[in-house]
Amino acid sequence: MTEAVADSASAKPRDTSFFGHPKGLAILFFTEMWERFSYYGMRGLLILYLTQHFLFSDEKSAVMYGAYTALVYVMTIIGGTLADRYLGQRKAVTFGAILLCLGHFGMAFEGSGSKEYIVSNGSEIELLDEGRGNNRKLYVDVDGAERRVTFGDDGSIKFLETADTSDEPTAGVYQTIAADSYTTRVQRQETFTLILYFSLALIIAGVGYLKANISTIVGALYEFDDPRRDSGFTLFYMGINLGSFLSSITCGILGIVYGWQYGFGLAGIGMLAGLAVFIWGQKYLDGKAEPPNPALLKKSFIGPINIELACYLAGLAIIAVAMSIVMNAEIIPDWFVGSLGILIFIGLVSYSFIQLQGTERKRMFAAIYFVLAQIPFWALFEQAGSSLNLFTDRLVDKTMFGVNVPAPVFQALNAGYIVIFAPILAWLWIWLAKKGREPSTPVKFAFGVFLAGLGFLSLVAGIGASGTAGLTAVYFIFLIYWVHTMGELMVSPVGLSAVTKMAPARVVGMTMGAWFLYSGLSNYLAGIIARGTGAETIGGQITDVAAAKANYAAVYSNVGYVAMGVGVLMLLISPIIKSWMSTDVGVVDSLDDELRASGEKPT
Question: What is the CATH number that goes with domain 14-111+189-332?
Fold first, then answer.
C-alpha cells in the first residue's frame, strides 16, 4: 500500500513508498538500471567483437567505436527536444526502449564471422580460429593436418608441427612465411555486417529517445522545493552504476567464454526487462511524463501523417543517418569534426557578447568554459571501452586466483569504485567545506583532467616494468581505473549542475545541448586517440607484441602529459573562472553532497 506524508508547503500528500521517495522512482530506477545494463554490457564487448569476429583493423574499429559513442550523446538532443515539445517523456522513453531492444537483439545475429586468408606464392591459406578474447587461437589446415599459427618477432608467420596449444612452447616449426612474402585478404559476410551497422544505429536512436527523458521524469516526480529531490537523483544514478557493474561482469563473461551472441543476447534481455518494468509501472508516474499538448499530437503534419507519427518517423531518420556515419566513420575527416566544435564555440561566445551583458555574460562565459573543459577528460576516460579494452585483452596478464578473467569484466571496476569512493569523497567535501577549504568547481575540474592524464602515465609505468614483450601486471589496470574514477568524481557530478546554474534561464536548453554535443565530440576524439594505438593484426591477433607495446606506451605517454598540462593550465586560470561565476559561486560549490556521491555518468 502506498504510504504518504504531508507536504508542509502545499498540504498535499507525498508518496514515500520507495525508501521515502515516490514509487515512480523505483520504476525509473529499475528501468535505467536495465537500460545501462544493456548499454555497458554491449559496450564492453563491442571493440573485441569488431576486431575478432568481423576482423576490422584496430584503426577502423576504434573510429567506428568513437563515432558510435559520439552519436549516442548527440542524438539525446533530438530525442529530448521532441519529448519536450510534442511526445512527452513517457512516449519517448517507451519508443526509445523498443528501439534499444531491437538493436541489442540484432547484435546477437553474428553469422559465422569474417574469414581471413594468407596469400603467398600465388596460393591462399584460410585462417581458422577458435575462442574469443585472449583465449583466441589461430590455426591453418596445411598438408592434411591442422597446425597452430604463431608470429615471429620479425613479422613472419609460423605454422607449427601441431595444433595442440599445450605443446606450443616446444613444438617444432613446420613452415615459415617471411614477412615480405605474404599479404592478407579478409572476406566478410555482407548481410551480417549490415545487421551490425543497423543494430548500432538502432541503439543510437534508442538512447537518444530514452536517456535524457528518463532523467527528466525523475525531476518531475518532485515539487521544486521538495527536499528529497537530490537524494532521489542519487538513488536513480546508483541504478546506473549497478547496471554497469553487473553487465560488465555477466555479459563480459558470457560473451568471451561462451560466445558473442550470449553476451549480446543477455544485454538485450536486460533491455527487455527495463521496457517491461517501465510499461508496467507507468501508472506510478502520476501523469508527470505525459505530452504537453495531447491534442497537438493528433494534428496533421504532412497529409495523413500526424505529429506523433512524425516524431516516431524522425527516429527512422536518426537510424538512417547514424547507420551511414558508423559505416563510413573512417572517411570522415578529423578537421570536419574539429571545425564543427569551433563553429559552435564561436556561436556561443557571439551570443554571449550580443545578447548578454554584465553578470549574465560572465556567468555564461563560465558555463561555456565548463562545456569545453570536459573535452580532455572524456577523450581520455572513454578509452576504457576501446583502446584500453584491447590493451587489457592482448597485453595484460589477467590471471587472478588461477582464473583468466575476460577483459570486459575489468570495466566493472569504474562502477565498483564509484560505489566505494563516492561517499568518501562526498564526506571529504563536507569536511573541507566546514573548514572553508572546499575546492571550487573550476579547481575540481582541473584536478579531474590532471588525473585522467596521470592514470595513463601510471599504466605506461606498468608497460615499462613488464619488459619488451612481457605481459603487464593486472594491478596496473586496477590502478588506472581507480585514478580515472577519482577524476570522474571531480568532473561528472558537478559539471552538468554547474552549467545549468551558470547559463541564463532562457538559454539553459541551448547550453545543455552544447554540453551533450561537446560530450559527443569528446567521444569522437577518444576514437581518434584509440586509432593511434592501433596494432598490426592478423586474424584479430597482434603480429608484433613488442612494437604494439611501444606504440601504446608512446601514445598513452603523449596524451597523459598533454592532459596533465591542460589540468595545470586549468588550475592556473581557475580564479578567473571563479570570478565569472560571480555571486552564485557559493551555490555552485555547495552542490548537494548526495548528488556528488551519485557518480553521475553522462550516458
Answer: 1.20.1250.20
